[in-house]
Design brief:
The structure holds two protein chains of two kinds.
Chain A: E1 4-13, E2 16-26, E3 31-35, H1 42-49, E4 57-62, E5 65-66, H2 71-77, E6 78-81, H3 93-103, H4 108-121, H5 137-149, E7 155-159, H6 167-180, E8 185-190, H7 193-199, E9 202-207, E10 210-215, H8 217-224, E11 228-235, H9 239-248, E12 251-255, E13 258-263, H10 268-277, E14 281-288, H11 292-300
Parallel strand pairs in A: 3-8, 3-9, 6-7, 7-8
Antiparallel strand pairs in A: 1-2, 1-4, 4-5, 9-10, 11-13, 11-14, 12-13
Helix pairs in contact in A: 3-4, 3-5, 8-11
Chain B: H1 2-15, H2 18-40, E1 47-53, H3 58-68, E2 73-75, H4 83-92, E3 97-101, H5 105-110, E4 115-121, H6 126-144, E5 150-154, H7 164-195, H8 197-202, H9 208-216, H10 219-236, H11 245-269, H12 272-289, H13 301-309, H14 312-323, H15 328-357
Parallel strand pairs in B: 1-2, 1-3, 4-5
Antiparallel strand pairs in B: 3-4
Helix pairs in contact in B: 1-9, 2-7, 2-10, 7-10, 7-11, 7-12, 7-14, 9-15, 10-11, 11-14, 11-15, 14-15
The chains are: A alpha/beta, B alpha/beta.
Chain lengths: 306, 359
Amino acid sequence: MNAVQTLKLTKEFDSLVAVDGVNLEIKKGELFSLLGPNGAGKTTTIRMLCCLLKPTNGTASILGHDVVKTPFAVKKLIGVSPQDTILSERLNCWENLALIGKVHGLSSDEVARRSKELLETMGLMERAKDQVRKFSGGMKRRLSIAMALVSDPQVLFLDEPTLGLDPQARRAIWEYIAELKGKKTILLTTHYMEEADFLSDRIGVIDEGRVVALGTSQELKTNLLEMRSMVVSIENISAEVMEDLQSKYSRLEMTKGRLKIYHKDLDFKEIVDYLHSRGVTVYSAALEQPTLEDVFIQITGKKLRD
Amino acid sequence: MKFWEIGKRNLKEIYRNPVLLGFLLGMPVAFMVVFCDAAGGGQASPIALSVVDEDHSQTSSVFIQYLGSVDAIELNESIYSEESQAQEDLEDGRISLYLLIPSGFEEAKQARQTVNLELAYKEADPMIGLLLKPMIEAVGFEFLGAAAPLNVELKGTESEIKNPAVNFYFPGIAVFGLMILVSTAAEIIAGDREKGFLSRMFTTPARPWDFILGYSLPFIPVLIVSTLIYLGVGMALGLTIVGNLGYAFLIFFLIGLCSIGVGMIVGSLVKSESQAGVSWLFVVPIAMISGAWFTVELMPSALKSVARALPFIHAIDASRAVISGSSFSAITLDIYWLIGWAVVLFAVGIVLFRRTMVS
């Protein structure tokens, strides 16, 4: 049995199709990322899986429990950290954790034990007795994730867990999520490709409501990326040379003395020699490692953060 | 006991928010002080007063002259010699109230026995009588000499009531104060809905009734504390409780529940920015037509039926009645009406919550 399974999951809002026939199979203990730009349908998918939205079509189940027919069975199994950090502002950390833990039916002792563990791991112990409205964004986010974990859920939904955080806070949360790998089934959404790359066992690339690619980070990069790219810093390039290059290679991008060449097979030496022979000054040149961003551009023809 | 946890959280959100708490408890107290002071203080514009002199004595005519010299009283020049005439004029609306000086007035004064005066007013307009009573008493004491026994009786109200104005205003303002719960309950729910807190809670195994109970229970201590504060302030301002305090408490409790119910409905339908507008749009006109601030006897019958259909006028009337000594049987229907409304409002609240849980 899969931890999360969806079949042709679809959500329409009036005329807009937010999620369009998504099929997902997430195994127990897997960390799966939905990667896509804002408005791709990531949050809508999560909201359907958390029983907050009724699918227009298709089905979804969590550990075999249908999200529409048996929402309360599903709710017992999941922990959710919503995209916007949502806490009870006038409660302190302990109280926020106790609220979620006890609503999930944990005893006071269990709640206290789990909360202590989580507050320590998340580095919130020092401020644990302060009302959370005074917290920084990073602290709130850490508490929000702790709240999703306090009931010891089997399936964890993390909707954009590092959205709007500074790199340091983001790194800290990544490390914590990485520690959970294998222990929990995690469905994470993000529009940061580094995040998906760093954390995921598998990635589903989602755009305009459809999953357009699925696989491990490496699979996506090698199988899907038909083109490689090379960046050359240059000066004195003529229009003639540009035309010549354009006819040879699939795509060229020229910005401020930086030429980016895309093609299926790129020969480093061949390109540099050619430029030299045409009197172009070359300051530096490098073949680029493909990124998920490249994969995304390749599949959808647009950038992730457009 | 999921509702208990949600309730605890909401109670903390309320009492840790000084602005909200101050508004909730402070505003009705301020209102009460203003209203009861303004009414009980005697600084009113002149009131037209007719006099029936059944004593026909020198003392009584001197007393009438004395009354005429008081700024706050505008004495009708013609003095009735028999009460029946005055009664007729009162019923026909030619006069709004009269003071009866019974025969034996002069004798009583000379013998230093209790002097009885009677202030009769139209049932429809009790406030003038209530306003005038302390004035007549003051004038009477001055006329008779400080320690003289004087009894000014208001027709239709209990004589044990020390300050009828306070007894009239208190229940209305207390009910109005509890109507503030509409806005507070709506604020908390609308805010939690918009900030996404409710959505987050909807991903937990809590059921709709856990939310309804969790959002209404924390208001119960607020309700009890407010009612106690109102009663305390009311008594400090001269409220006389002749009847059963427990019944009055029950009425305030039920109308508080109704207000919370209305607030939950407003909060689950309206955005928090427009919540205050919608709540007050509801509270102020309804408080007005329910007689929270003044008598509604003269109101057009259509408006009166609207007010009668809603629970608030029943709470005001019934609490006025029990505080002034009515028995429980006199207010049974009002109590049923209040219970009925509370049940309906909470049922609607549960339905609305069920609807908001999955969209």
